[in-house]
Amino acid sequence: MTASFIKNSDFAAFLTAMMKAAPVYGPVAKRSRFAFARLEAPEELRLDYDVTILPPKKLFFPPAQDLLRFDSDGFEAALEPEEKILFGVHFYDVKAIDQTDLLFAERNCDINYIAHRQTTTIVASNVQTVSKRAFFATVGADVPAKGHDAALTSIDDGYVFEPLTARGEALLKFGRFAPATEAQCRGADKVNADVLAECPEKLEHGTAAIATKVRAAFKDEELWSQLAADCFSCGSCNTVCPTCYCFDVQDTWHVDQTSGKRTRYWDACLTEDFAKISLGEGATENFRDERGERFRHRLMRKAVYLNPKLGGPACVGCGRCSAACTADIADPTRIINQIMAS
Ligand code: SF4
Ligand code: SF4
Fold first, then answer.
1. How far is CA 40 from the centre of its chain?
2. Which protein residue's CA is at the shortest distance from atom 8 of ligand 2?
3. Where among 137, 168, 198 does a domain terminate?
4. Is the pLDDT of residue 80 over 90?
C-alpha cells in the first residue's frame, strides 16, 4: 500500500475525526510519565513520549479481566470487546503485541484476548524520545515489527502515514492526506533508522549466542543467587513487561452463594507464591522457592525458552523492567552481558 502524508496543521483535525468514529487510545502524560489512555481531546496525545508505564497489551489483556459470569442456571461469557483505535505504539511494543498474538492464539485459543485484539486497529508511531533504559536496537534486531495496521512517522512538516492493512487504509478518510513523495518516504526511513543509534543500553551479542550461553549457565546456582541477592520478589519487572502474559484465575461469589464471576489477573513469576502448589491437607510445594530460581526463570523465558516458538527473544528491549526495579537488578542487558563476558 502506498504511503500518504498529512501536514502538522491538519493532524489535530485527523485525530478529532477518528475520535468521533471510535474510541482512540494513545500515549498521554501522567504526571512526569506516560500511559496509554482513552483520548478525550486531540491535544492530549503525546507522540513525543519515551515509554509508557504499562505496555499497550493492557487493552487486550487487562490487569483484571472478567472471563465469565455464572449462576445456578449456568454461565455466560463476560466478553465485551469494543471497536477501538490504538494510536501511537512504538515498534518494540508492536513486536511484543505480535508475540502475545501468537501465544494467545496457539493451542487452546484464548477467545478473550483474541476478541479484544480483533476489534482493535493499531497505528504505530516512530520513537521520538528514547527512554533512558531502552536497548531495543540490539535485541532481536532481525525480528520485524508486524501485526499493526498502519505506521506513522513524524518528519519536518508533518507525518508520513503508511497503511499496512485494510483497517489502516480505512483511517485515511478521517484526514486530509496526500500521496507521500519519495523524499518524504526517505525522510521517514531515515528517522526510523537514526533512532536506533540513540539507545543508551545495548546487548553485546546476538540472539543465538546469548541463548546458548545463558542456557549453559542454568546450573550455576551461585551466579543466579548472587544476581538475585537484592531481589524483593515484588514482581514489578513482570508487571511492566510487554511480553509477560502469565495470569491467575479466581472466582468471586456473590452473597447468594450461587452466582458470581470468574476473573483473571496478571501474575508474576518473580513473586514467591507463583510456583507454589497445594499438596492437600495444608501441605504445599514450591517449584521455585529461592529468589535465584525465580530470577533465573525470568531470564530463561526472555532469552532462551521461547525463542524457537517466537523466532527471536521474548524481550523487545523496552527497558521498562530496568526502570521499574527498585533494587536496579532487573536490567536484561547487564545480566546477559555479564553472563556473556564470563
Ligand atoms: S524483559 Fe524488560 S526490557 Fe525486555 S521486554 Fe520485558 S520489560 Fe522490556
Ligand atoms: S528483579 Fe527487581 S523488580 Fe523484579 S522482583 Fe526482583 S526486586 Fe522486584
1. 23
2. 234
3. 198
4. no
